[in-house]
Amino acid sequence: MAPQNLPKTFNELINNSPLPVLVDFWAEWCGPCRQVSPAVQQIAREYKGRLLTVKVNVDEKPHVAAQYQIQSIPTIMLFKNGQPIMRLTGAYPYGAIKAEIDKKLSS
């Protein structure tokens, strides 16, 4: 399953999701974001039913980016019970992203 587009109420999504939520903050003009996108899509497929994955375009949702102090992209955050539990900034490869997710979800 590909990452879902951001619903209108981001805070409701992360606060009310029964699943942890992986958020990919990106922009169309961002080359490193395009590099990370296939890894995020693979994670979305692999963790289907265990993790909700969304993409936030920082140009379209600057208030959401500001709320989480996103100053560089790509930034990937993992939320559990509405709280951020992981933050990766930069073009991390699939294996590194997966390892961090697994570590955070097992703790």
Written account of the structure:
This protein is α/β, with parallel strands linked by helices. The chain has one domain: Glutaredoxin (3-Layer(aba) Sandwich). It has four helices and five strands. It has helices at 10-16, 31-46, 62-67, 94-106, and strands at residues 4-5, 21-26, 52-57, 75-80, 83-89. It has a five-stranded mixed sheet, with helices on both faces. Helix 2 links the parallel strand 2 (21-26) and strand 3. The longest helix is centred in the middle third of the chain and has 16 residues, at 31-46. The mean pLDDT is 92.
Quick overview:
By secondary structure, the chain is of the alpha/beta class.
- Seen as an oligomer or otherwise, the chain set is single chain
Q: List the total number of helices.
A: 4
> Can you tell me the residue ranges where pLDDT is under 50 for at least 5 consecutive residues?
none
For the record, the CATH architecture stands as 3-Layer(aba) Sandwich
Q: What is the total number of structural domains?
A: 1
Q: In CATH terms, what is the fold-level topology?
A: Glutaredoxin
Beta-strand segment tally:
5
Q: What structural class do the secondary elements suggest?
A: alpha/beta
Q: At the fourth CATH level, what is the homologous superfamily?
A: Glutaredoxin
Largest sheet: 5 strands, mixed
Q: Helical residue percent?
A: 25-40%
H and E string: EHEHEHEEH
Shape, principal axes of CA atoms: globular
